[in-house]
Design brief:
- Helix 1 (19-27) packs across helix 2 (29-35).
- This protein is of the alpha+beta class.
- The N and C termini lie far apart (60 Å).
- The chain folds into 2 domains: 19-157, no CATH class; 159-200.
- It is elongated.
- The protein has 5 helices and 11 strands.
- It has helices at residues 19-27, 29-35, 53-58, 71-77, 159-198; strands at residues 41-44, 46-49, 66-69, 89-96, 99-106, 110-117, 122-126, 129-131, 134-136, 140-145, 148-156.
Amino acid sequence: MNIFHKQVSWEGYNPLHLKGFEKMADKHPKLFETILQNPLVYLADRVSPLDSLPVHEVDSSFSKGRVYLDGIDYGRLSIVDCRLSKGDTVYISAFSPVEVQIISKTKDKALVNLLQNNYFGWKAKIDGQPAKVYTGNMSFLSVPVPAGKHEVVFSYDPKGVRVGFWISLFTLLGGILVLIYSFYLTTKAREVHTKSHEGD
C-alpha cells in the first residue's frame, strides 16, 4: 500500500520535498547537476565524507561515480574498498511504485545508487538478505554490494501508513456498528412505544 504517486524519472521524482534534496539542490548546485547526469540507477566506486564537499566545490572535482555520506555512514563504509571495472553493469529489472528490483554485476565491491529520495519506509535486500540502506548525496538510496552478480531490491514499506490505515478502518467499522446499534435501539423503542399505545 502506498499513498504517494511515484513515477520513474531521470531526476528521481518524489512528491515530497525533503531537506537533504533541497539542501543539495540549493546549496550545492554543481553536485546536483553532476548527480543528475547519472541514470536512475548507477554504480559508484568512490565514497567521500560530506564535510569534503567544500573542497570539491572549490576545484569543481565532482564525479558521477562519487557518493557523499554523512560522517557516521562514511565511517562505516570507508573500509569498503569499492572499485569499478570495465564491464561492470547495473540495471533495473522490475519497477513498481513500492519496489525497484535491480541487477548488479561487478568484479569488485561497489555502491549501488538509486535516484530515489530516502525517506522513512525504504528498505533493501541483496539476494533476499536484508541490507543497510545509506543516504547518499544527502538524499538518495545507496547500498554497498559485494563482487559478483546480485539482485538488489529496494522496497517501500511505510509501517506508519499501514498502522494508520488499520486504525482508520477499525474506527470506521466501529462507527458503522454504533450507527447500526443506535438504529436498532431506535427501531426497538418505536416498536415498544407502538405496542404500548395499541394496548390503550
